[in-house]
Write a structure and sequence with these properties.
Blueprint (H helix, E strand, L loop, with lengths): L1 H10 L6 E6 L3 H16 L8 E6 L1 H9 L2 H8 L2 E5 L6 H11 L3 E5 L2 H9 L6 E4 L5 H10 L4 H4 L5 H10 L3 H4 L3 H15 L3 H13 L4 H31 L1 E7 L5 E9 L18 E7 L5 E7 L8 H9 L2 E2 L3 E6 L1 H10 L2
Parallel strand pairs: 1-2, 1-3, 3-4, 4-5, 7-8
Antiparallel strand pairs: 6-7, 8-9, 9-11, 10-11
Helix pairs in contact: 1-5, 2-7, 2-12, 9-11, 11-13
Length: about 350
């Protein structure tokens, strides 16, 4: 079937249409997609009408794969760009690469799927994959700063560096305090509301930077974020006190308890700072979220920012998840989740 579709692509006159698939649930996905679109339009090779934007999440992409949407995209678009997201299914990523070849561009910073790409013959896809920066700075590098000159000279718009520092947990390397990047990220969230049109308009103004737009945006985002964080801190403290389950443990391969953890059961965005009021008692924070398909996502955090325990490596080994040292995630079945509830492990 793949060969038939590739033959159809070869024999038909392809249009100039491009599909940008991006992670719709955070600033990194929305702003990296906006940077990609900005580059395409300002290259004078594409117009707004040539570009379709598809905001999605991992579970929705799995449904797209199962329903055969990849094959439809192959006949509808001349090329596809994925940023800050991938299919959960390795075979879907391989199929995307097989269908589009050099017309497939993949920008990502998530370690597990990057490692899988090297093993399963789609690691040569165009784009850029690194784990040290988020998709925002990777998109900027791929389209505007191939040799990293602007990055090394700190000539990248600061707001992009701050947003990346939050998403990739690289605030220290970028020269910021965690509290600062958190507030700016939340403030930008409040201003743009993860709306792709608002984010794109903001990116246009960031690159234009008339009347010190970047400086004003950063300050405004910080002020709004500060107000929201003060409220969130109070809510998190109350949540940990009233609803936190402090009996959870992390174990090693021999079944020995190696870490103490508090678990919360919430929907929506989460972060390590939710556990600030209990960080002296628990080494890790866990957030369980139920997915529409019945599976559960697990977010694992170090409660102490200086902790060297590798959350990403732990979840990758135990549950085929991944992420960063201080924050990582995975998805488990309902049966596995129930076992965790019963054993507190």
């Amino acid at each position: 079937e793949i060969k038939k579709i590739k033959l159809k692509r070869k024999n038909q006159i392809m249009n100039n249409k491009i599909l940008i698939i991006y992670h719709k649930e955070d600033n990194d996905g929305v702003f990296s997609a906006s940077i990609v679109k900005y580059s395409l339009i300002h290259s004078n090779k594409y117009t707004d009408d040539d570009i379709d934007l598809y905001g999605t999440c991992y579970n929705e992409l799995s449904k797209d794969f199962e329903s055969g949407k990849l094959e439809k995209w192959a006949l509808q678009y001349s090329s596809v760009i994925m940023t800050d997201i991938s299919f959960n299914e390795v075979k879907a990523m391989k199929q995307m690469y097989d269908l589009f070849g050099n017309s497939f561009v993949w920008i990502d910073h998530h370690k597990p799927i990057i490692e899988e790409s090297k093993k399963n013959n789609f690691g040569k896809a165009n784009g850029i994959r690194e784990t040290t920066r988020s998709a925002i700075l990777l998109a900027y590098k791929y389209y505007f700063d191939v040799f990293d000159t602007n990055y090394k000279d700190h000539n990248i718009p600061e707001i992009l560096r701050i947003l990346s520092a939050w998403d990739s947990f690289s605030y220290e390397r970028e020269g910021y305090e965690l509290d600062y990047v958190r507030k700016v990220n939340i403030g930008v969230n409040s201003i743009c509301k993860l709306n792709i049109d608002a984010a794109y308009n903001t990116v246009e103004k960031i690159f234009d930077d008339k009347d010190n737009f970047v400086q004003k945006l950063t300050a405004d985002a910080y002020n709004q974020g500060n107000t929201i964080v003060e409220y969130e801190n109070g809510v998190s403290a109350q949540l940990c006190k009233q609803s936190g389950d402090g009996e959870f443990k992390l174990i090693d391969d021999c079944g020995n308890i190696v870490r103490s953890a508090m678990a919360l059961f919430v929907q929506g965005q989460s972060n390590s700072l939710m556990f600030n009021t209990v960080k002296d008692k628990y080494q890790n924070g866990i957030v369980f979220k139920r997915c529409p398909n019945g599976n559960w996502t697990i977010s694992l955090y170090n409660t102490n920012k200086d902790d060297t325990f590798d959350c990403g490596a732990y979840l990758e080994k135990k549950y085929k998840g991944g992420g960063h040292i201080g924050a990582a995630g995975c998805t488990v079945s309902q049966a596995k989740f129930i076992t965790m509830l019963k054993t507190k492990v």
